[in-house]
Amino acid sequence: MIITEKSEVLPFVQSGIEKSDLNSLYIPSEFSDIIPQLTKIGETIYYSKPSSVQYMTNELIGSYLAKRLGLDTVDYQIGLRKEDSQFFALSELFYEDGYQYQSALEFLGEHHYRNCFSMAQSGIKTVVPCYYSLRTLRPYKGTPFYDKNLKLIALDLKMAQRDRHEKNIIIKMASKGTIDLAPIYDYGRSYSPFYDNDAYGNPFAFIRFNTATLELLFRRYPNLRDYVEFLTKISIDEILTAIEQEKRVCFTEEIRQDYRKAQELSENVINKIKIKTYY
């Protein structure tokens, strides 16, 4: 990623957060561990995360694709520390007064659903981890919340996401009992579909071991298939060009080629399932 004087970049300097600022952020206690990583730039408070060029690019790609799907998402800004040219992914906090926020881990546990992470760890290849086990969400079938989960699966399949564990999905609950997905975040560990060693929620590990997992999802949830096909039509070059125009940065041909290869790998996995399922 080439940064110029015209690039949309925020100069990053780690700054402390005043107690008066914290009181206005409505950070749930479950997520209080993010406080040390908050920084104030101008009048805006951001969550800051050190990022390599690839991670920073993945965050921007994820945000772009989520918007194309109509998902609420963190809108990542590029932070750059001048002294060492270190990138930081900067995101505004989305917690609002009047709502309760829970990680998927807490939500599933509180509602007595089987812990999906333990299913992933136990090596059961007939189910998929975390949010992929949609049967746990049956009470919400037909609601926007349910459909957004399908969109999130499609997005992570497109990007070969390998880090969508149960604390990387946040449930937003209103006092009236309605629930929604909080803005999606953390797309950094994407585009490595065959890297399984740290795969908290890597769908490709399960798909390769048992192709029936995604095949079954496509049969049960036609909307998921539609969302996957919609995203497949968006080329990686189109995505990177859109980011270049928005952020006024430049991606080298080498970076573009790396992403073309990574996108091809992830889509080859999905295409095998589609061919097996429908032809």
3D architecture notes:
By secondary structure, the protein is an alpha+beta fold. It contains ten helices and eight strands. It has helices spanning 19-23, 53-69, 104-110, 116-121, 144-158, 203-209, 212-220, 222-232, 236-247, 253-278, and strands spanning 9-11, 38-41, 44-51, 77-81, 86-92, 99-103, 170-174, 179-181. β4 and β5 (86-92) form a beta hairpin. The radius of gyration is 19 Å and the shape is flat. The protein starts with 8 loop residues before the first strand and ends with a helix. Residues 114-129 and 197-201 have low confidence and may be disordered.
H/E series:
EHEEHEEEHHHEEHHHHH
SS content category = alpha+beta
**Percent of residues in helices:** 40-55%
Largest sheet: 5 strands, mixed
What characteristic shape results from the CA principal axes? flat
- What is the number of E strands? 8
The radius of gyration is 19 Å
What topology, given as strand order, has the largest sheet? 1-4-5-3-2
**Beta fraction of the residues?**
5-15%
* Mean pLDDT figure: 81
State the end-to-end CA separation. Answer: 41 Å
